[in-house]
């Protein structure tokens, strides 16, 4: 009986843990965005890239990640935000994205990495439907962290290129 | 105690298919009247293990069918029946049939038993047992099905039972799983302790099993010991209930005795079990790829060296850096590079398998076809140990089958014709494989009539592939058979020319970055030569520069590279330039414009052109510069991105940068040079060009 009780207890704990997720956030055009930290493989500095012919403009090209060919997406261009020159703070966040039938390693170019927040799932609010913004579809939810608002990305939609 | 048998299914199928392959190979060696007992024994053993295995796993359809086969083989083995050609044919058919049954079972489908039943009837006719025992069995089944019956089972093992590795306790517990089991053990045969041989079995049992299963389930349990014990199973309804209860009491005591006795014998049984488990694990691995132990050992050695080098470098890294450490550091790095290269080569070798895996299917194929065509053919296999990549191997098999069929059907003459031509009545088809440079070469040779150039010419003219006026050498004429649309209706026979022409063979081989060519001499024979890269993972590439981008063109598709002489360029239509190269017109594709790159050289004069060939069409690729040639490891773009038109893959260059590999046929499509739905380029007709 005691064991069963403990089991139940553990389960509840796990469920609580599952509700709270850690998010890595980054800046793009003064806005802060977040991705589930478990999808993040590594953070790299911007480096020279091989262009893929006839690809959409937001696909910057491919890099060699220790023998794996990884495509890099410029998130500014993906969201239709005007591009800026890449600088020393420009980073590439390498993510593992679970797409419909495969998991792919892809990188995103962002202005700068910000912080890691623990966010409970129920704190996230739905995105208000704004007819004039196509970008709303890429955002899974909005959360307030202190004074700031962070947009949590729907990676599947964002990286479905 | 219950074992989940399903975990062994894959092993069973694997072994059975291997057994069938062995049976097939041996059957093909059999010549009626001069068979040797070893061959028959091998076939018999293969059949026997398939029967045993399928019985154990409950694949009764296979077990029953193999049983008749085995009976026939047993009689032949004992010499009580002579082997005839009919037997061999029937046995070969059964091999096919069994293979189909097992495939169906492996795919968890209901096997189609019609063919098996037909073959079984034939076997039973030969054996003279039709309508005897086999018919009796099914009658029993309906009676026992779905109703609860009690069986009396008398099980009297022979003394040597334990030595065969069988453990009665397992069988008893299996029986107990079928239903209510009452056990009675007889110990009257147990001798005095001084005479007791601990490895012998002196006990016998009587079981009463109340179950809804039928008798065959019980027989199945005792299947492995039927030769080592006297077993009688009788159906006795529910009558024995009371008596069983009475006899149950003494049985417990007997069983304890029995256990003590068995303690002595158990180690032996257990050792056998362990070894059985071992052999299964090795077989499970073989479902994917079979690697020679020497290859694995050499890998382990290399990893060992790598670890040592790494340890050395770590140690150096911890020291203070002086002149001396730098020298040894450089030395260590050189060693690391060496180790890595060795390791890479060895890992590549793991994917290599001897070509005998492909060759082994041909003896049967040649036998069947030559019988059908009534030709006498001898098949020679050479260089069976030549190794090539597993992926290449899987894909080369079908084109080879097609070529061999062609040789048999069209190449080799009938016996009469051969005799008339003063040749050996038995025709020869030779498959030969060898390494040449970085390629593997497979030759398919026959000593038949050779290609009929006049006929090919006529056919090509009729199909509009060449014109009456074209003056072609014999070799050029022979090459025509690889063109799409050459295969014509009057060629269609059961064997070749069923719409899968030689053009498909060529296309399949080219898809593997290989090539195929033919040489032929009238009356002497023809030879098809297939050249393939050793592996699909590595390719020889020519690095080229387009604007600031580096691309790789597969060396195998490059014909030549040249500087454009502007006087030989003419413009066709709105924006297509063609270069007159000797007697051909080569369309010029501007790589920078197809790939949308800015900053490349756009003028044609004196610019470099790489002439490549794909699907029998030559095109010229305009590039800024030719860089080095090197071997590159092919990486997939699709793994993390998607298919890119005009690009077949990517690779990583020595400096760590990614470079894309150009896909020639994709480029042609991308450029819109080819009419949609057609194999031909838009600028095909020479006459048109000359007019313009």
TrEMBL record, chain A:
It comes from Pseudoalteromonas lipolytica. Residues 20-161 form the CheW-like domain. It is found in: Cytoplasm. GO terms for cellular component: cytosol. Its main location: cytoplasm. Pfam families: CheW (PF01584). The lineage of its organism: Bacteria, Pseudomonadati, Pseudomonadota, Gammaproteobacteria, Alteromonadales. CDD domains: CheW. PANTHER family: CHEMOTAXIS PROTEIN CHEW, CHEMOTAXIS SENSOR HISTIDINE KINASE-RELATED. This is Chemotaxis protein CheW. Keywords: Cytoplasm. GO terms for biological process: chemotaxis; signal transduction. InterPro entries: CheW, CheW-like_dom_sf, CheW-lke_dom. It comes from the Bacteria.
TrEMBL record, chain B:
PROSITE patterns: CHEW, HIS_KIN, HPT. The modification Phosphohistidine is found at residue 48. Its EC number is 2.7.13.3. Residues 538-673 form the CheW-like domain. Residues 1-105 form the HPt domain. Residues 333-536 form the Histidine kinase domain. InterPro entries: Bact_Chemotaxis_CheA, CheA-like_dim, CheA-like_homodim_sf, CheW-like_dom_sf, CheW-lke_dom, HATPase_C_sf, HATPase_dom, His_kinase_dom. One of its GO terms (molecular function) is kinase activity. Keywords: ATP-binding, Chemotaxis, Kinase, Nucleotide-binding, Phosphoprotein, Transferase, Two-component regulatory system. It catalyses: ATP + protein L-histidine = ADP + protein N-phospho-L-histidine. The keyword RNA-binding does not apply. Involved in the transmission of sensory signals from the chemoreceptors to the flagellar motors. CheA is autophosphorylated; it can transfer its phosphate group to either CheB or CheY. This is Chemotaxis protein CheA. It comes from Pseudoalteromonas lipolytica.
